[in-house]
Design brief:
heterodimer; A: alpha+beta; Thiol Ester Dehydrase, Chain A; two-stranded antiparallel ribbon; 9 strands; B: 6-stranded antiparallel β-sheet; globular
Chain lengths: ~160, ~140
């Protein structure tokens, strides 16, 4: 598993926005509420994956979807009792079409089920209408307690 | 022949801005390609652990699959990703990450590729990817 997206610890130091990769890609949190989040990424020349068409790299969409899915899980963990590190277990992405060059991409994630240790999430990435997606994702995340999170980094 | 393929690989790594953004490289040893992602601060997703962003590990494996596919034959267009399934096995530590791709099947239009990423030991992969790629894209699918 990849203790990747973010840590929902209450210290605030590791909020998703604070993740260096999220800053490097210019991720912008549009809104979030318990169980849901929307994050956007702007088109940038250095993020292009196909120089012929100018379409942003699939990898950027992958990172956006992983990030927003982790965030949706995180919104359910800020009750103080369940502060934990969130790690992606698996992530399945279907790419429907290339995003329009020079257009901002949005991704909305919904954590539709949270057990004591696993969060199940669906997400959609789109550049105009959510009904005309660029990509859809299904993911599972594992929560580790803060004490176990530090050992997870050294398997 | 191998020099031609090495040149094609080098050209792809130079031409794709996002591969440069990640900072990845790829080397050929005979017919075997290894992609390398040196650690860099901007790839971190969790500062506390610290750990590479899961999206970065997935993206690196996706790009590794694309690199491997360009070695097959000269393609008119870049292959388009149809779908990927990423399994995360271990934390991506702040170290150099490597990946190798295995093209399991090449059809007339679609290829199936498996990728594995590791850091200090190949026998302890940090993540795996399985994906389908459109080799001669049509207008209606696999356009990312």
């Amino acid at each position: 598993m990849s203790p990747s997206s973010q840590t929902a610890a209450a210290d605030g130091d590791s909020t998703p926005q604070g993740a260096p990769q999220a800053i490097a890609l210019g991720f912008r949190t549009v809104w979030s509420k318990p169980g849901e989040a929307v994050v956007a990424v702007a088109w940038r020349e250095d993020l292009v994956g196909d120089p012929q068409s100018g379409v942003i790299a699939g990898g950027v969409v992958t990172t956006l979807l992983d990030h927003v899915c982790g965030m949706a899980v995180g919104t359910l963990l800020f009750d103080g009792k369940r502060a934990a590190s969130i790690a992606t277990l698996d992530l399945r992405i279907d790419y429907m079409r290339g995003a329009e060059p020079r257009r901002e991409i949005f991704a909305r994630a919904h954590c539709y089920k949270l057990t004591t240790s696993i969060g199940f999430v669906r997400a959609t990435a789109y550049d105009a209408e959510e009904t005309d997606p660029v990509a859809t994702a299904q993911a599972a995340f594992a929560m580790t307690s803060p004490s176990r999170a530090s050992t997870a980094a050294r398997p | 022949m191998s020099a031609v393929r090495a040149a094609r690989l080098a050209q792809l790594l130079e031409d794709v801005p996002y591969m440069r953004f990640l900072g990845m490289t790829a080397d050929l040893a005979g017919d075997e390609m290894t992609a390398t992602l040196p650690f860099s601060d901007h790839l971190v997703g969790n500062k506390t652990l610290p750990a590479l962003h899961g999206g970065v590990i997935g993206a690196f494996m996706e790009m590794t699959a694309l690199c491997q596919l360009t070695l097959l034959e000269p393609l008119r267009r870049q292959p388009r990703t149809i779908d990927v399934t990423i399994e995360y096995l271990r934390s991506g530590r702040p170290l150099t990450t490597y990946a190798r791709a295995d093209v399991r099947k090449v059809g007339r239009r679609i290829a199936n590729v498996h990728v594995e990423a590791w850091q200090e030991a190949r026998s302890q992969p940090i993540a795996a990817l399985r994906g389908h790629y459109m080799l001669s894209p049509t207008d209606d699918a696999g356009a990312s």
